[in-house]
Amino acid sequence: MKSMMIVLALGVLLTGCANNLSRHKIHPDLVGQISEKKVALNLNLPSKHIVLKETQYRVLWLNYQQDKVSYEAVWDSDKDFEEAYQEGFLRMGVLADPKVDSASYKKAFTKLYPSLPMRERFCQVPNSCGPKLDSYSKVYQTPEFDEFAADLISGGYEYLIDVTIPEFIANDLNLGVKVIGSYPTINIIKLDSKDLISQKVATITHRISAKNDLEKIHEDGMAFFKEAVFSGISGSFREKAVWYGEEYWAY
Fold it and tell me: Are 178 and 207 contacting, i.e. CB atoms less than 8 angstroms apart?
């Protein structure tokens, strides 16, 4: 019975909080469209939190206990995520430049973020699945984004890849199974028209060793958390559907 419930719990985690969850892949035609152009990359991390979740198995149901911790004070994460995503998109043939001044836009996005409607379907942890996809139109109508886009255009950029990573979930599924994951949204904007030409929800999902204590996730420079996150990102940019032993789970 417990084994069956673990399979069900993993299914919920991996299919996640929207029915279009996938790898960090964009359509080959779009890659061809933007690969020869100047592309900017921006990472939004509006909620630098980790939800620590434990799944407890009862006879006929699953019970959950959870807590939330911040990693903002112990890890200046923006640059690390920028480098990971730059490398991932480069694998796809897109040179996306993260060295752009997006400070004002990021600040405005973070301020606006709590007011955006959040995806709820299949989302076990409120707010962990990020904003509804249609709510980003509100984000891209702000004066701060207008200024950011104008600056990019003046710098010769034609496209912007705008990635939003909501809070992470560190889930102890018990019986030796622990998973760290998140559900980034990847938006691609054509800057001159501000058209949102591509939008998708992806997955960062990585199974960690059962020996790692989630309650000690801040210790040792957050080493096992960082390893899981960046292995998950790397795995999600791979060509094939992924199941590499105990390492990657991605689509």
Answer: yes
Alpha-carbon distance of 9 to 15, in angstroms, equals 10
Contact call for residues 65 and 172 (beta carbons, < 8 A): no
Contacts 24+ apart (CB under 8 A), 196-200: 196/136, 196/137, 196/140, 197/30, 198/26, 198/27, 198/30, 199/133, 199/136, 200/20, 200/22, 200/26
Distance CA 137, CA 175 (A): 43
Domain spans, the chain = 2-250
Distance, CA of 238 to CA of 250 (rounded, Å): 9
pLDDT, tens digit, 9 for 90 and up, residues 174-225: 878 899 999 999 999 999 999 999 998 888 889 999 889 998 999 999 999 9
State whether residue 99 is helix, strand or coil: coil
pLDDT tens string 78-109: 999 999 999 999 998 999 999 999 999 999 99
CA–CA distances in Å: residue 101 to residues 28, 40, 62: 28, 10, 45
Give tens-digit pLDDT for 32-44: 999 999 999 999 9
- Considering only CA atoms, which of 175, 185, 178, 199 is closest in space to residue 52? 178
